[in-house]
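Let's sit down with a protein and look at its sequence and fold side by side. Please make up or recall a protein chain and show it to me in full. Label the sequence line and the structure token line clearly, so we can match residues to local backbone shapes. Go ahead whenever you are ready, and we will take it from there.
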Amino acid sequence: MWNGKEHAVKELSYKELPGISAKQLSEHHDVLYAGYVKKINEIRAKIESVDLASANATYSDMRELKVEETFAANGVKLHEEYFDSLGGDGKVKGTIAEMIAQDFGSYEKWEQQFKATGVAARGWVVLAYDWDEKKLRNIIYDTHNQGGIIGCCPLVVMDVYEHAYFIDYATARKKYIDAFVANVNWDHANELIEKRRIKENRK
């Protein structure tokens, strides 16, 4: 979470989940995600003193810092949304259930597409709301800063990099995806819809 000029590690509200072990979560949260928090703070501190006059599109400190800022910042934000997307019972309910039924035809159709997108993605899958089209979409981010659609906000985020599941599932990504979907915190998605006034945008 952002705290003044620096970002601080956001603590997990759970230690383990059905199908996702404490060791897997600890390595993912305490090591990998925490590393992105450290790096975004380091990058932004260096941007404050970078030589602006030497900026160049082929190579320059300014270019490298600004490019890697997008990678590290999205690394932080996507991970925080990922951990917030977990910790539930996987039972869709409330406004998000209505939106999914409207935009995908049924929850079952959404789940099938979401899982297939998880197999097809190299890094992330995001159930996002497109503000312009007023519609939910499953979107791939192949890396933190490659993919996505401008003008969309995440509601459910799934990490499909191997580090998210290898301790528990080795190369069996489909089993991990099943475990993720079974642990989705749909209350969090509904809170985001309320907070961002998405329901009003769809009218």
Remarks:
- The radius of gyration is 18 Å.
- The helical segments are 22-47, 61-85, 94-104, 107-120, 166-169, 173-182, 186-195, 198-201.
- The first helix runs from residue 22 to 47.
- The domain at 94-201 is CATH 3.55.40.20 (minor pseudopilin epsh fold).
